[in-house]
Amino acid sequence: MSDATALTADRILDTAEEVLRRYGPAKATVLDVARALGVSHGSVYRHFSSKAALREAVAERWLARVSTPLIEVATNPEPAPQRLRRWLAELSGTKRRMAREDPELFDNFHQLATLSEGAVANHLEVLAGQLSMIVADGVAAGDFSVPDAAVAGRALLQATARFHHPSHRTEWNEPGLDDDLEAVVALLLDGLRARPAG
Amino acid sequence: MSDATALTADRILDTAEEVLRRYGPAKATVLDVARALGVSHGSVYRHFSSKAALREAVAERWLARVSTPLIEVATNPEPAPQRLRRWLAELSGTKRRMAREDPELFDNFHQLATLSEGAVANHLEVLAGQLSMIVADGVAAGDFSVPDAAVAGRALLQATARFHHPSHRTEWNEPGLDDDLEAVVALLLDGLRARPAG
């Protein structure tokens, strides 16, 4: 009874992550998580109404670990060009560190996320939104000139996919990756600075 | 005997592709291909000295089907900005068409290619080289201003990975993909046009 009252959504998600870490995405179901918690699956269903809902919540929490710390960079008062450079380096660095430190868990989370289209789409919106904010600040300060900060933010995220999208994780050990990121970012920054062609 | 004399490298590669199409990358071995051709594996080894050599040759031929037609675009006399735009659209379009027309074969070739690091590295060099040539032409004509055409060509290829790299194939059905490509290319073209910041 005391266990049932202490069964918060957070505790369920902690356990779901542990199940995911140990057994992979196929076992991160309501039933398996309930078993690991020693509670009835009805108790878990009270918080997550389906396997898909639980999966989305696990994916969201994982993705938020990437996007939330970036808010500090995105809202930093430094000039937009430096801020943009630092934000992209940090996104890429965080993903690469996660993949390097625990490759198996990273793969498990990635597989789970690919099944959680809503969570991934939302995550990409959040990241593109932070980039758009930096671009808009740069336009306001006269550093950048773009017709549409939202479109530019989305384009910046996509143009740097090789350096942060998990589909490219097998390429992240290649030598020269930081030089490659630097070259791509330099070209993109020049693009933001340019006056649109008439 | 007449069969043995007609056993060219091209005929072996045709058969290897057929085996790959039907049975997947694990079966595209010298032994399986020899069996499909009705010849001894020694006859195949005379052309390809190992499983890896055969695999590389199959991957190279497949990748050349993408890069070779692009030479015509890269060397076209039209102005570099239009040419660059057309080249990137054609690379993306070719990959997406191949993935759409025969998804299973595309996956098999992709798996085979990921095992053929040399062939892939060479393919990326070829593509980046074509882009660098267009950039250099643009610099010579006064359309572009970049410090290093080779670095810019490589950056252009990487910044557009989402639209041609097979790791992104599951995203190629998303609505708005052409608009996304257009936004990324517009930003990159502005970057090439810009004077480097002092």
**Rg calc of chain A:** 20 Å
The two chains with the largest interface, and their residue counts, are:
A-B, 31 and 30 residues
Strand content of chain A: under 5%
- The tally of helices of chain A reads 10
Q: What do we call the CATH homologous superfamily of the largest domain in chain A?
A: Tetracycline Repressor, domain 2
Helix content class of chain A: over 70%
Low-confidence spans of chain A: none
Look at the helices and sheets of chain A and give the structural class: mainly alpha
- The shape of chain A is elongated
How many domains, in number, for the residues of chain A?
Answer: 2
Total number of beta strands of chain A: 0
Q: N- to C-terminal separation of chain A? A: 71 Å
Supply the CATH class of the largest domain in chain A: Mainly Alpha
Quaternary structure state of the chains depicted = homodimer
Q: Give me the CATH architecture of the largest domain in chain A, please.
A: Orthogonal Bundle
Largest sheet of chain A: none
Order of helices and strands of chain A: HHHHHHHHHH
Mean pLDDT over the residues of chain A = 92
Give me the CATH fold name of the largest domain in chain A. Answer: Tetracycline Repressor, domain 2
DNA-binding region (chains A, B): 29-48
Pfam families (chains A, B): TetR_C_27, TetR_N
InterPro entries (chains A, B): DNA-bd_HTH_TetR-type_CS (IPR023772), Homeodomain-like_sf (IPR009057), HTH-type_TetR-like_transc_reg (IPR050109), HTH_TetR (IPR001647), Tet_transcr_reg_TetR-rel_C_sf (IPR036271), TetR_C_27 (IPR041478)
Protein name (chains A, B): TetR family transcriptional regulator
